[in-house]
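Figure-free illustration: sequence to structure, shown twice.
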Amino acid sequence: MSTSAPNRPSLMGRIRGLARPRSDKAVIPETTTASGQLLAPERSSLVSTGAVIQGDIASPGTVHINGTLNGNVRARKMVIGRTGSLTGNCRAQDVAIAGEMAGELLCGDLRISETGRIDGTINCGRMSAGTGARIDAVTQTNGQDDLPEISLIQGTAAS
């Protein structure tokens, strides 16, 4: 039999600092809108390790690729993890590559780690590569953050 009051936080909740009152009513966290849509501090999409995706991804936030994506990416930021692979084009402001990419890359800031590999065409504002990174690409860096207008996804112009 429980001796705690119905609106008193659980013992573990108090220890962890999660002092939420117990209630049968659903608590809408502060990270949701009135309609119940989740508002994350940064929106992100993930292609998990072992997943194979055919198609394009467009995201207002970050795209994390730890699996395989055969398609194009348009995002504010793209991260290809060590186990990740992208075969297709990418347009993003910030790009970090620790895995593999083959295609056309248009970005403001590019970081390729020592495990990263890129084949294709690179057009970026700034680029840095770790010792051991493999780059087999036509490369153009212009030292600017703004992205030029080119078509990356068939039938659409990048903006």
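We now fold a second protein in the same way, so the two outputs can be compared directly.
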Amino acid sequence: MLTDAHGHRPAIADLGLAEGEHRRFAQRQVDGVWGQVWVKALAGGKFLFLFGTSGLQQLGQRYTKRWTIEQCFQNLKGRGFHLENSHLACHHKLRKLLALVSLAYAFCLAVGQAADRRQPIARKKHGYRATSLSRHGLDIVRQLTRPTTGAQTTANQLAERLLDWIIRQVFYYQILA
């Protein structure tokens, strides 16, 4: 329930929002806290509900940026990069490893974006991609560097050399730094 300054409490479901449509509300009370509300209707009668204490016009954009960063951290921690599996305790080694894994992530994201421009990634029923751009890129890089792929092209050799270099750097900085 959203409470306005006059005490009115319309239910979100009663707003009449069509799927994909959103609405912003300034100065609404939710659970005793006053702030800005951004609501978007999703498929199946569900809603994405954002609440913040500032920046009503940018609330949806801020959420998009925050979600992008959250996906990056999720990918670095798992989903192919497994940064947490290093179990490093040394701050300096961890900083170097994070830098190298971030470079690998950025490379895979760029590969995924380029591949998505050539042939878009399939979408699920809810409209989102079946796989993230970074995961798609990682899958492509892995496929290119598998020995069973077939004839080695220049792109395959370059990708393989880059990955070998990254692996050597990770190993070097885990051992020596």
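Summary for the second example: The chain has a mean pLDDT of 76.
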